[in-house]
Amino acid sequence: MAEKAESDEAPEDGVEDSDTMEIVLFKSDTCAFCPRAEEVVRETIETFEPGTFKLRVINVSETPEAAEEYGVFALPTVMIGNLSITGIPEPEMLMKMILGVRVTTNEV
Amino acid sequence: MSEFTIERVKTGIPGLDELIEGGFPKGDTILVAGKAGTGKSILATQFLYNGAVTYDEAGVLVTLEEAPKMIRRNMLRFGMDLKKLEEEGKLAVVDLSPSKEATPVTIGEYPSFDLSGLEAIIMNHVKKLGAKRIVLDTLSIMAYKFKSRDILREEFFKLAAHLTDEGRTLVLTSEIPEQHDGLGVFDIEAFLASGVIVLYNEKISETSRSRSIEVLKLRGSQHSSRIHSMRITEDGIRVFPGEIGSG
Ligand SMILES: Nc1ncnc2c1ncn2[C@@H]1O[C@H](COP(=O)(O)OP(=O)(O)OP(=O)(O)O)[C@@H](O)[C@H]1O
Ligand SMILES: [Mg+2]
Questions:
Q1: How do the domains of chain A map onto residue ranges?
Q2: What kind of fold does domain A21-107 have according to CATH?
Q3: For residue range B213-230, what is the model confidence (pLDDT) as tens digits?
Q4: Does the model's ipTM exceed the 0.90 cut?
Q5: Cβ–Cβ of B104/A90 closer than 8 Å?
Q6: In this complex, which of A60, A71, A90 lies closest to B120 when CB atoms are compared?
Q7: Which of A85, B142, B153, B185 is most buried when burial is the number of CB atoms within 10 A of its CB?
Q8: Which of B201, B220, B223 has its CA nearest to residue B212?
Q9: Is pTM, for the whole model, over 0.90?
Q10: Could you tell me the distance, in angstroms and rounded to a whole number, from the CA of residue B39 to the centre of ligand 2?
Q11: Cα–Cα distance between B106 and A12 in angstroms, integer?
């Protein structure tokens, strides 16, 4: 899914690099599990070379349209490509998802 | 109006309001349950349509199952022009159906989530329109989307409470699977709602079926305890309070 996920809401700037993988975290102001999920994602990203990932955090309290666009009901949700995880992800699961997306992207 | 009088929200569905003391109790959560094809979506849509056209109350239709295109087309057959209401700002059809291409595929679920995303999506439209009526069609889909039932139950109670804040009335539809005795796949449907309406389309002979409607419970209402005949006509659902049906 190389679909342009880029829209108006809070992109973490920078140029789009085909080697950079975008990780999207959906959170809200009221979501109790979201801070921990964000930590896990950031820690996982840090084990890779800088520039490997681009993290985009979407606060649906501010941009509910984004949650609607992607049909994201549950928070936290981590989305990479067209795959997602609901709840606080385990790092191993995140890794699996990253590799999974890599495989499918390379095949296309 | 005395302090014991419950304010009513008229459904405007011919024959139904007189079975329920004039309408749904304002601010309540009403469950419309029934097997496939019994008329749940039509009834729920009529509630919104009549609200917008006749009672000056804007509505939000959250569809978790059917694509909006199909809904607009189907409802037009009953004379309900949803597109027009949407253009007039009296109705929002919120597409959360599986037909949306951007929806990612969930490959894992941990029991540490809430439904604040769904709430934000719905409330965004409610606020924009100042909506007083909300329909979520259908609750049953949630049971397929998420595994963590305990969280779902808790979160749905919270969601219903927030959506019905400020006197908004919420209608949830629930599909009763064939060969099933309860009111839906969750087994919490009856607790979640303060009102329950059940639709039937039972076989009465080898060659015919008969539609009927039952008000199973309704807060503070001396509702009919009978099962009444119902028909789906070219104007949508019509209830016949004088006719006793077979449930
Ligand atoms: N023009 C029409 N005249 C009479 N009946 C109709 C007409 N169009 C559809 N129906 C009936 O309406 C029923 C569908 O109604 P509706 O979509 O509200 O059911 P539902 O309970 O929401 O079903 P599902 O569980 O599949 O979502 C069908 O059984 C069909 O027989
Ligand atoms: Mg339906």
A1: 21-107
A2: Glutaredoxin (3.40.30)
A3: 999 999 888 888 899 999
A4: yes
A5: no
A6: A60
A7: A85
A8: B201
A9: yes
A10: 7
A11: 24
